[in-house]
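Data availability excerpt. The first of two example chains:
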Amino acid sequence: MDSPNALAPALAMLATFVLVVFGARLVWLGTDRRKGVLMLVMAAVLLGNVLVWIA
């Protein structure tokens, strides 16, 4: 892969990691469970997209 094509999955994986960490934090603390669950769902969707991109 050339540089721009390799950058998109890398940034998506960073975003996935951030979404999982802070989504789990929101669910765990109970401050805003709905947003936390939505962040975890978004992380799963983004991870699926990355798996499609690199396959």
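And the second chain:
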Amino acid sequence: MREIIDLTKDLMRFQTVPSKPQEIKRCAAFIENYLRTCGVVYNRFDYENTPSILVLPQNGFAPVLLMSHIDVVDAPAELFQPLEKDHKIYGRGSLDDKYAVALSLVLLKNHLQRLRKQGRSRNDLPFGVLITADEESGGFKGAKKVLGEIKTDFCIVLDGGSVEKIVVKEKGIAFVKLTSRGKAAPGDRPWLGENAMEKLIDDFVKLRAYFVKSAPAHQDRAVVIKRVYSGDLHAQIPEYAEASVEIRYTGKDDMERLLDTMQKELHSQIVVEAVEPLFSGGESSHLKLLSGISAKTRVGFEDGANDSRFLAQFSINGIVWGADGDGSRHTLNEHVNIESVYELYRMLDEFMMVL
């Protein structure tokens, strides 16, 4: 299983951040070459210049689908040089999510070799693999597109949880824009106008009050302001400003009512761009089988949201599962525990063997 670790480190050296699409394409080409070398037939999808790689045992169907992604969040250049130390791999993408890509590829290769030795073929594979490249920026060009074109009985999203925790529920996401309008005026006489940016800032402070722990019916919902824009102005106060906001909500939130309540307190207009559903994996025989393979593993909930939220749109049962990284995802200390990668591989291998 050492190959998983070496392949993880190879993948980590690609700086696959959203702002570097050529690096993403280079990484996808590296994976394609790996598959060709292993004699694996695959399909590549490109939606709006974003690649996804799909391997299925049959046209359009896999009994089980393993899903992971190669894109990562921004990091200093040195984090793209993997460091193996104290039975861990450190660096950007080690935990989120390149170990999962490597594990999926090696598991696929080994199962296909086993089948060929038995005189069988790719059609007999019990699982397929989907590798996307835009999970960190929403998953709309990867998982959402490709899942709509295939069928699977069960999807394992290798992007969260831990060896001892299978995630069956995660938050949903609402993509919201706040737009504020004021009155332009010279920068040296601001009292003659109304600063749209200042109004926007005041409104976000009001909005954020609904997401602090002391807020009524908080239930661990969360809000993050992602981008702010007011035009390229010099010596003038802005008459227009906008902010892109992400709201992570739980099953106990009535989003329509919450947004209506917030709107009544704000000067800015709340524009709902999209509301993505919560992830709820559903009951399945596959989950029961996995739980039986590892007596230590429990099911549970996580605060995060990832491409698993698209499963419900296509009536796919599934889970979120993964290796251990001590909560280091997206941090400067990001790492994955190597033994947990091996343990996850062993459990997935056994699971695929008994399907």
